[in-house]
Amino acid sequence: MKEVLNALVQAMGSQAIALGTVADNVAALKQRLARQFPEMADELKAQIHEEQEKSRAEVYELQVNLAKLREAVAQLPEAKPAAKRKPGKAA
DSSP string covering 19-51, please? Predict the structure, then answer.
């Protein structure tokens, strides 16, 4: 069970990294649009700044929560192997 929980936390971390990459790509696209369309540049730059600030706060919170999850999983007791039953004769 502990391995499953660790894998889950790892998968969540990987998904967070992937989402961060997508957010970076969106910001880069908006920067290119701002250069190509000067009339929209101020609005796009403001959006980029706002989204980056929000993203930083969310990423920090996610990192803290993942660390807490890792710590909680580490505190779980190790699973005890199940007792093997001896095959018996059916009545």
Answer: HHHHHHHHHHHHHHHHHH-HHHHHHHHHHHHHH
Q: Note the pTM of the prediction, 2 decimals.
A: 0.67
Local confidence band at 51 (pLDDT 50, 70, 90 cut-offs): very high
The residues, ordered by sequence, that sit 6+ positions from 30 with a Cβ below 8 Å of its Cβ are 44, 47, 48
- Taking Cα atoms as reference points, which of 26, 15, 9, 14 lies closest to residue 68? 9
Report, in angstroms and rounded to the nearest whole number, the Rg of the chain calculated over CA atoms: 24
> How many Å apart are CA 88 and CA 91, to the nearest integer?
9
CA distance 54 to 26: 14
The torsion region of residue 28 among left (phi > 0), alpha (psi -120 to 50) and beta comes to alpha
